[in-house]
Write a structure and sequence with these properties.
Two copies of one chain form a homodimer. By secondary structure, chain A is an all-alpha fold. In chain A, 80% of the residues lie in helices and 0% in strands. Chain A has two domains: 1-54, Arc Repressor Mutant, subunit A (Orthogonal Bundle); 62-193, Orthogonal Bundle (Tetracycline Repressor, domain 2), CATH 1.10.357. Chain A contains nine helices and no strands. Chain A binds chain B through residues 28-30, 32-33, 107-108, 112-113, 115-120, 129-130, 133-134, 158, 161-162, 164-170, 172-173, 175-177, 181-182, 185-186, 188-189, and chain B through 28-30, 32-33, 107-108, 112-120, 129-130, 133-134, 158, 161-162, 164-170, 172-173, 175-177, 181-182, 185-186, 188-189. Chain A binds a DNA duplex through helix 1 and helix 3.
Chain lengths: 194, 194
DNA sequence: TTTTGATGACCGACCGGTCGGTCGTTCATC
DNA sequence: GATGAACGACCGACCGGTCGGTCATCAAAA
């Protein structure tokens, strides 16, 4: 029993180690710039071990994005959980951009980076990216609906969409310019809208 | 004289052919997904010819973005030139997104794609990308200033920044979802702002 | 006017290295 | 003995880049 757990633990650990190292490298260097050899070297695994856990590099990429979705949403929820109002939560999402950007490893959104990097990738990867962004858009829309309960659903969805698009634009331009003004401009506009 | 011109013409043509083919492939497949071998094969050139005209693949990438800046700005100017008012021009920029997206080869913004693809690239490439976006932001800001001559410069710059960020978010989400709703949402918001 | 030598665009074989992926083997666990 | 995780040598293809050489052009020498 205990030994059996050790076995599966070792296996699970190896797979997890590979995934963890790959996640860091994919994010920091990009998917195409990161080779399987580098991943296994830094994870201390052999080539064969890699391919017992992942049938291809692309499947590892998909596992990375899938895990990243959970991780990133956790960060976001941590950042806005303590905000009592919907308005505070919406502004908190933009504030979160600021703290995230200050991270020395900030390299923008993993999903957008992958989207831009892989024009004709596996449909499963495209779906993972679209799903991540769709959920974020719907978060904005539901928060707007909370903040403006008297508004029509169409109006809430419209404003939520705009906030989402503004967030995405801010995200990408923070990555581009590495300066705080996109966030300042977006924050000010959002405050005036709500 | 004439023969001399033929010589330089032939050279210029070869270089131009390589650059033209590379521009298409870089945009459609991405920079890293496109190899020098494929470029020269489709351009009908030899490896050595490539390296007489470009000292490296990266220099070709820079030449691509530099030319793309001119080309894309030309498209944009063509799209908004006939608009008599600043408001019309601003809305025209967003309309331009729609016609651009309908292009069967639409793959988003070459500059953002390259930014996302190359986290630690040549500073000259980063500068080319930042410059392209800076000019677009300033176009929005100057159009806002024309549209609201009574507003303070700070207010014009603020609104121009927001329009720019909204444009960028729309751009990237059109690429992501390949659906018209991001553009519809952005257009509606811009109309209500102006 | 003809010959010659320098120039440089163009060519394609070739370089070392890396790519993603396979496979036969070892070895711990049950 | 059976199972399967872990290993690492190995595969062909491709990567960006180099290099020796051909040939057309053209200015200078004969």
């Amino acid at each position: 029993m205990v030994i059996g757990m050790n076995t599966s633990t070792r296996s699970a650990t190896k797979r997890a180690e590979i995934l963890q190292v790959a996640s860091r490298l994919f994010y920091e260097q990009g998917y195409h710039q990161t080779g399987v050899q580098q991943i296994i070297a830094e994870a201390g695994a052999a080539k064969g071990t890699f391919y017992t856990h992942f049938k291809s590099k692309e499947e590892l990429g998909l596992a990375w994005l899938s895990a990243r979705h959970t991780t990133w949403n956790g960060w976001l929820q941590d950042a806005i959980r303590d905000q009592p109002t919907a308005r505070g939560k919406i502004l908190g999402i933009f504030e979160f951009l600021g703290t995230w950007m200050e991270d020395c490893h900030y390299r923008g959104c993993a999903f957008l980076n992958t989207l831009c990097e892989m024009p004709d990738c596996d449909p499963a990867i495209r779906a993972e990216i679209a799903n991540h962004k769709r959920e974020l858009k719907e978060l904005f829309q539901s928060l707007v609906a909370q903040h403006q309960p008297e508004a029509s659903q169409a109006d809430s969805q419209q404003l939520g969409t705009v906030l989402f698009l503004l967030f995405e634009g801010t995200l990408i331009e923070l990555q581009n310019f590495r300066e705080p003004w996109p966030l300042d401009g977006a924050r000010q506009h959002v405050e005036s809208l709500l």
